[in-house]
Write a structure and sequence with these properties.
There is one protein chain. This protein is an alpha/beta fold. Helices cover about 40% and strands about 10% of the residues. The chain is built from 10 helices and 4 strands, in the order ααααβαααβαβαβα. A 4-stranded parallel β-sheet has the order 1-2-3-4. Helix 2 (about 15-35) crosses helix 3 (about 45-50), helix 5 packs parallel to helix 10 (about 240-245) and helix 7 runs parallel beside helix 8. The chain is globular, with a radius of gyration of 20 Å. Bound molecules: ligand AVW. Ligand AVW binds next to strand 1, helix 7 and helix 8.
Length: about 260
């Protein structure tokens, strides 16, 4: 009796926008696996299906981060102890840096972060379609499709952290450790003392101007970290990191 409805859903689920999101995601997934043989145990079709079930047919402002649990559990990702790089308000420089060298890895350099980086997506109640435009923005509602994904993926990245972890924070702004950031609200809270030895903050500064490691927000961070883990902070001029980006043969240890 409901064949008509099923049929129309089947049609709408293969609308151009749905097809292009699926293709974009599978293409990015396969490209990543090509370049990162350590990820070859992943199945991109399975990843797509775990991903889409998180938000298809849902109000795009009512997708909790737990909706992405099946996706996170589907992705096979080896932890990379001592090389994990967290960041906040330093998106451009941190990725210019990790793109050039293999010594550090951000969430966006892992399979799931790489696939979703730069994409917008959402669904709609009582619809099988996926959309890439007209989706709620980052701050339009708390539980929006895209923000909940980044919250969940960040939680998984921090859960997997081990050894000495590094965080690149922005010394050119008033509050480098922003209490509303994903780094503060999710990642720092999930470091496991049994696995993570220390947190090293790299505070990126403009020619020794701006905030220093004595900044009150960084003292808050230190209080949150110690005595559970070791904490240290180093102000590093942006030009020094830029030099390391332009000379990828410099040893990573010499960058800060
Ligand atoms: P961020 P986080 N409107 O630089 O610590 C639109 O603050 O939160 O660092 N987009 C936004 C907004 C906003 N108000 N706020 C955040 N974003 C998006 C994952 C935007 O794409 C990694 F593992 C911005 O560039 C890092 O350690 C991005 O969120 C950590 O979480 C980062 O915001 C970085 O997140």
């Amino acid at each position: 009796i409901s064949l008509g409805v099923v049929h129309s859903h089947a049609l709408s689920s293969s609308s151009p926008s749905s097809e292009s999101l699926k293709k974009t995601i599978i293409d990015k997934c396969e490209a990543f696996i090509q370049n990162n043989k350590s990820s070859s145990a992943n199945n991109c079709q399975k990843i797509w299906s775990a991903f889409q079930q998180a938000f298809v047919g849902r109000d795009p402002c009512n997708v909790p981060m737990e909706a992405y649990d099946p996706l996170i559990h589907t992705v096979i990702q080896d932890p990379v102890c001592n090389r994990m790089l967290f960041w906040s308000k330093t998106k451009k420089i941190v990725h210019d840096f990790t793109e050039k060298r293999d010594c550090f890895l951000t969430l966006e350099d892992t399979l799931v972060g790489f696939i979703m980086n730069g994409l917008t997506w959402c669904g709609k109640e009582e619809s099988n379609e996926t959309f890439t435009t007209g989706c709620p923005g980052w701050t339009d509602c708390v539980n929006n499709t895209v923000r909940s994904f980044w919250n969940r993926a960040s939680a998984a990245f921090a859960d997997a952290a081990c050894g000495d972890v590094t965080a690149m924070l922005n010394g050119s702004i008033a509050t480098p450790f922003s209490p509303t950031s994903i780094f503060a609200t999710i990642e720092v809270k999930r470091f496991k003392a049994a696995k993570v030895k220390s947190l090293s903050v790299v505070l990126v500064t403009k020619e020794n101007k701006g905030t220093t490691c004595d900044d009150p927000s960084l003292q808050d961070l230190q209080k949150e970290i110690e005595p559970k883990l070791k904490y240290n902070c180093k102000a590093v001029p942006e030009s020094k990191i830029q030099d390391c980006i332009s000379h990828p043969d410099t040893a990573c240890g010499a960058c800060w």
